[in-house]
Amino acid sequence: MTFTVTDLSCRRGEITVLRDVTFSVAAGEALVLRGPNGAGKTTLLRTLAGLTPPVRGTVDTDVCAYAAHADGLKSQLTVAENLTFWARVFGRRDIAPAVHAFDLRALLDRRAADLSAGQKRRVALARLPLTARPVWLMDEPTVSLDAANVALFGRAVAVHLQTGGCAILATHIDLGLPDTRTLDVTRFAATQTDDTTDPFAEALE
Ligand SMILES: Nc1ncnc2c1ncn2[C@@H]1O[C@H](COP(=O)(O)OP(=O)(O)OP(=O)(O)O)[C@@H](O)[C@H]1O
């Protein structure tokens, strides 16, 4: 499987942030998005995930699973309930491999609201394998993780890559993955004149 994006333009609000984004990620590869704050890494990930419609181009969002910057857990549900809920959304039942990969056994009966920031992050990331989708999209996935859990997460991503998946992530951390390329999103920066707002709006104000 190769995940390909061609001439994609991405917006945030009404502003086109990136244009003509073109790249491919093969099975087994990780693509690390680079660029300074505000360059458009989250914008690209949200567009790939289908959360924001592209200005131009198409994305096969059905093959993508997204771990956003926010954990997005249901705070009143336990860890087990959160994972089971998520698994069912994707037509699956068995949460055991994800529980094992992210070392969550001891936390299964705890309410998400009562977890530490790093524990919440692990639960949020454990949803990725539950989707059984090949393209993992991740926005700063290691935030709040200590060194041991960064390593745990790196192993989970490595297993995903070894089993035919691929990963696209914004991160400043070297996960030690074997086959990693970087993509600097600033090369796709749209200029001010590319914005998608109504060109006559100013005249009407
Ligand atoms: N809701 C919004 N409406 C309009 N513009 C937004 C919105 N959210 C973000 N932006 C702008 O879109 C641009 C791209 O932001 P984005 O979050 O994609 O950058 P980033 O590369 O992920 O940054 P960081 O490294 O700080 O996380 C920035 O100029 C940002 O200010």
TrEMBL record:
Coiled coil: none annotated. GO terms for biological process: cytochrome complex assembly. Keywords: ATP-binding, Cytochrome c-type biogenesis, Membrane, Nucleotide-binding, Translocase, Transport. GO terms for molecular function: ATP binding; ATP hydrolysis activity; transmembrane transporter activity. Residues 3-204 form the ABC transporter domain. Pfam families: ABC_tran. InterPro entries: AAA+_ATPase (IPR003593), ABC_transporter-like_ATP-bd (IPR003439), ABC_transptr_haem_export_CcmA (IPR005895), P-loop_NTPase (IPR027417). This is Heme exporter protein A. It comes from Jannaschia helgolandensis. The lineage of its organism: Bacteria, Pseudomonadati, Pseudomonadota, Alphaproteobacteria, Rhodobacterales.
